[in-house]
Amino acid sequence: MKKVLSMVLLITIICLSCSKHSSTEIVEEKLQNKDIEEDLTIDVEFSLGEPTEYNNIVVEDLDGLAKSGKTHSVKYYSYMPEEKIDGKEEYPYFDVGQNQRYMEVDKTLKMNNYEWKNSEGVLSKTAPENCKMSYGIDISKHNGNVDFKKVKDAGFDFVFIRIAYRGYGEKGNLKEDEMYKINLKKAREAGLKVGAYVFSQSVNEKEAIEEADFATALLSGYKLDLPLVFDHETIKGDVARTDDLAGLVFTNNAIAFCERVKSNGYNPAIYSNLVWEDYYYDMARLKDYDIWYADYSKIPQTPYDFKYWQFSEVGIVEGVNGKVDLNVMIEK
């Protein structure tokens, strides 16, 4: 009898997987119809904590700025430089401080054509019919000891692990993430797909290449399922060595990192958000790289294509202490 029931369940699952509905559409149906069989759905268990509060006032270490001869931190979330790569104002969006801004869109590039059916919650969002969407987290030593088996059991399929980081002080020392080895090991043992990232504070192409070499040496032949990502992060409310870099430098550094990663045998990608795509990155020059896009709006605002979407920084997931970043991966 058990064999018969198992066979029926298997056939049912196969039929569901062959239908035109994506796994997330099945989840959407489940949310609307509580009578759907639990075993026939693909679900992800997580919740969201309180959102981070941002405001429009730039809070900075004025003494530190004065000592460095600077007047402001151009990488602070609520500050935008006066000059952009493109000057026309066509495409409206909201930054993390909920300030409305405008950007010129290069329509020769690959566009974001994902169709989100419902903007009320990520669990009820679906990508187009020819896409598969899965859920993941990203972590560093700051997340402490992660129980990856519990993360996997909660329905997550992948994780991005910080491998290395550069300090944002004047010296800009490169360091390995103290938890990266154990995180790589345990994530793979739990059956999660694994990607990695480097927290970059490179001020020139030489340093970006140094970061790529440092990270790939730490990986030492470890096979990643997902890309090794260039993550040129914002330093909120503090002076950073990258504060006065022009957009051209940010773009050149990203390319230098990605090309070196490729030559070292790994697949590169770039972490970004819409402000960076507007003010700092020349997206036409980055069109050959996958984008890991960060946006905590209900739906992604970017007009440009991306493969990974970090949709929250306040996720609560079984197996992770405290809040964790939440992501989806869209495979076409």
| Radius of gyration using CA atoms only | 21 Å
Name given to the CATH architecture of the largest domain = Alpha-Beta Barrel
- Topology-level CATH name of the largest domain: TIM Barrel
Strand proportion: 15-25%
Report the top-level CATH class of the largest domain.
Alpha Beta
Number of domains: 2
Mean pLDDT: 78
Number of strands: 12
Percent of residues in helices: 25-40%
The helix count comes to: 8
Structure, explained:
The protein is of the alpha/beta class. The protein has 2 domains: 2-43, no CATH class; 62-331, Alpha-Beta Barrel (TIM Barrel), CATH 3.20.20. It has 8 helices and 12 strands. It has an 8-stranded mixed barrel with strand order 4-5-7-8-9-10-11-12. Helix 6 packs parallel to helix 7. 35% of the residues are buried.
